[in-house]
Amino acid sequence: CFFAAISGSGPATVAALGMILIPAMTNVGYDKSDSAALVSASGAIGIIIPPSITFVIYGSITGKSVGELFASGIIPGILMGVLLILAMMFTYRGRELKLLPRATGRERLRAFVKAIPGLLMPVIILGGIYGGFFTPTEAAAVAAIYGIIVGFITRRLKLRDLWDLLVDSVSQTAVVMLIVGTASLFSYALTLTGIASDASSALIDISGGNKYIFLLIVNVILLIAGCFIDANSAMYIIVPILVPVARALGIDLVHLGCVMVFNLAVGLVTPPVGVNLYVGCGIANIKLKSICKSVMPLIVAAIIALLLVTYLEPISMLLPNLVSNSVTG
């Protein structure tokens, strides 16, 4: 949950923390596949708790405030984290686990001081956005520059490493933009041919004008889509269909965005195209079949959290309303 406030990507969260957490969990007695499953599932919180790339894309499509969308993901992300903890505790009830030796106060202080540059990253990103100092896009640029400066100060980054960083950034951006570009073209075709309008009308007819039934249909559609489609692509394809219906039924688009992002976060750990699962498998060196079995209780916990977020609107709207009221005031 904490690292999600630094990374806006689910797979990146799993990749960054899995190398540390999976071996650590295995050493104290957790099964390797269970360890990989927990890290993969909790890594999905990376796109719920801000900053989130998926929220930014939703905001760019709908025109909603990215700041409000970010605020809507904080409580749901923490809720998902708590339920994942409870699910793992339930799964491992009665099992023997080793207790690691407690760190001394001096060791903790030394670790904290060493971690201060990293701890400041979410403060700069979120504090800058909510404080009105810069936009989410500018926050990304500030964070990148800050990361480079810290890298040089701590001597973990050398001048010759910058070229490799730029090449990696360009290649990863190209992959994302190719997906976004083709998804945008598909979305435009849906709108131009009237398919999006017809699908919206069909959804209103099926739901009978009941927003709760509509939200249930949204969950079913997105949970299935998340099994096969990348989260960012799903946004460009599905949002133009769902938003007109949500407006007609009086559903707040910030709440709808939170529900959609939460659904697609669950999609990151649902086979056969659960991206987080593949990252977790690669780190733990296990087969997909093994992690799929271990992740099932965690998916159940995530879906319970999803239903709470869907039907208890204050969970997602409490903080955005506070942000909106403070700006208005």
Strand percentage lies at under 5%
> What fraction, in percent, of the residue positions are helical?
over 70%
Order of helices and strands: HHHHHHHHHHHHHH
Radius of gyration from the alpha-carbon trace, in angstroms: 21 Å
Uncertain ranges: none
Distance between the termini: 31 Å
Mind summarizing the main beta sheet?
none
Total strand count, please?
0
Q: Classify the secondary structure makeup into a structural class.
A: mainly alpha
Mean pLDDT: 87
User: What form results from the Cα inertia axes?
Assistant: globular
What is the number of helices? 14
Any descriptors?
329 residues, mainly alpha, 14 helices, 77% helix, 0% strand
Structural summary, described in words:
There is one protein chain. This protein has 329 residues and is mainly alpha-helical. The chain is built from 14 helices and no strands. Helix 3 runs antiparallel to helix 11, helix 4 packs across helix 13 and helix 9 packs parallel to helix 11. The two termini are 31 Å apart. 39% of the residues are buried.
Could you give the topology of this structure?
Layout: H1 10-27, H2 32-43, H3 53-62, H4 66-91, H5 105-130, H6 136-153, H7 161-193, H8 195-207, H9 211-226, H10 231-248, H11 253-267, H12 275-284, H13 288-311, H14 314-328
Helix pairs in contact: 1-2, 1-12, 2-12, 2-13, 3-10, 3-11, 4-11, 4-13, 4-14, 5-6, 7-10, 8-9, 8-10, 9-10, 9-11, 10-11, 11-13
